[in-house]
Design a protein that fits this description.
By secondary structure, the chain is an alpha+beta fold. 26% of the residues lie in helices and 27% in strands. Strands 1, 6, 9, 10, 11 and 13 form a 6-stranded mixed beta sheet that branches. Strands 2, 5, 7, 8, 12 and 14 form a 6-stranded antiparallel beta sheet that branches. Strands 16-15-17-18-21 form a 5-stranded parallel beta sheet, with helices on both faces. A hairpin with a 4-residue loop joins strand 3 and strand 4.
């Protein structure tokens, strides 16, 4: 027997969206963005354009008495030529902060990427309806977390009771920027990325500006962070700079200073935590650029390899070891006049011993268990007693 519902359709706007900096109106629906339009106009990098449109940390949030919710979406499925199929992105529904349902869109637009040829093409696909039923009776706060690594057009939201804008949570807003690891690569669910787990543990409202391949000290990213209201800030810098072989040591230091200067223009006294890279053996002492491991792909698995020459470090090429030392130096010098600037060595989140126990499956990104470990250690350091994000210091 099919249950009949008296559906209420609610427009999807910024009043019920959290974690996005912009909402683009398209002919098929609304597209959440994690960089504002001004920044997107300055992006000449297809990888970053794709990454910022993937809604890591973005969720619909509303109050309702509804016991059934439907969400129409168009998901973008990525297919990498020669690589194993990617899992479908997961949508998670939370009721009063507790998981109450999961769903996937099994079809949608298809983006086919050939890394060896450097090409990409898109095939349009259908709208899919996600259904969450059997929710508890009574007034409640509902969140629907969108897939962290799957671009998602939001077409329609239907509920069997009216929707209201959620009450202010009273929690501090934590604005975080980082690489694909912060974005959530290889995490299984959107609430299972290390920033989402750490935010839940620390009682913070997350805005995740982790971009796969895109933590490159871009000025437009710094300006977007400058202009975004937040109580707590963090930046995780290093791995993308190395694997893109983007700059030398001479340029890196001033670029870090410039990025931090811009953040301080908009957030002069907020706690600001600078995090260096976690352990990644392929780049500890070997510069970029990074390249796909085509031998691994021929064996049906994803892998990466560093192709730089360690001998060039003496001439200014960057490795993770060099970057950790430079970030520690910069923060130590700046903190003499900026007492709310803090440093966290990424090896304290995931070091060589951790890699021996929980190796990076593709030599670059952590698995779900490692996301949890990083989150637990970050939350203990940042939100714990005496930490830079501790409540008594806000």
């Amino acid at each position: 027997m099919t249950t009949r519902h008296d559906w209420t359709t609610t427009p999807i706007g910024t009043d019920i969206l959290r974690g996005a900096l912009d909402l683009e109106q398209t002919g098929r629906g609304v597209l959440p963005h994690r960089l504002p339009a001004r920044a997107r106009r300055q992006i000449a990098d297809g990888q970053l354009a794709m990454a910022e449109s993937q809604p890591a940390g973005v969720r619909l949030a509303f109050r309702t008495r509804a016991t059934a919710v439907e969400l129409d979406v168009v998901a973008t499925k990525r297919v990498y030529v020669g690589a194993p199929p990617r899992p479908d992105g997961v949508y998670e529904l939370l009721v009063d902060g507790r998981l109450a349902g999961r769903a996937v869109a099994s079809d949608g637009d298809t983006l086919t990427i050939d890394m060896s040829a450097g090409t990409a093409r898109t095939r349009p696909g259908p709208v899919e309806t996600l259904r969450f039923t059997g929710l508890p009776d009574g007034e409640k706060d509902v969140e629907i977390w969108l897939p962290h690594d799957e671009t998602t057009l939001l077409v329609a939201l239907r509920t069997d009771a009216p929707v209201r804008t959620p009450r202010p949570s009273g929690r501090p807003v934590w604005l975080h920027h980082g690489s694909s690891i912060s974005h959530g690569s290889n995490a299984a669910t959107p609430t299972g990325t290390w920033p989402a787990l750490a935010a839940a543990s620390g009682g913070a409202e997350l805005i995740n500006m982790g971009f796969g391949g895109g933590a490159l000290l871009d000025p437009f990213t710094a300006r977007a962070m400058r202009d975004t209201p937040a109580d707590l800030l963090s930046v995780k810098i290093g791995i993308n700079i190395v694997n893109a072989d983007l700059m030398r040591l001479r340029a890196f230091g001033p670029a870090v200073h410039g990025f931090l200067d811009t953040l301080r223009d908009g957030h002069p006294t907020a706690p600001l935590l600078v995090i260096s890279p976690i352990c990644c053996p392929i780049h500890e002492n070997t510069p970029g650029p990074l390249a796909p491991d085509f031998t691994a792909m021929s064996e049906g698995r994803v892998g990466f390899t560093a192709t730089g020459d360690p001998a060039e470090v003496a001439a200014g090429k960057l490795t993770l070891t060099v970057i950790r030392d430079e970030l520690a130096r910069i923060v130590k010098e700046r903190s003499a006049t900026d007492p709310q600037l803090h440093h966290l060595d990424g090896l304290d989140l995931y070091g060589a011993d951790d890699h021996a126990e929980l190796p990076l499956p593709d030599d670059l990104h952590p698995d779900p268990a490692t996301h949890r470990r990083i989150a637990e250690r970050f939350a203990r350091h940042a939100f714990g007693r005496g930490g830079p994000f501790a409540a008594q210091e806000r």
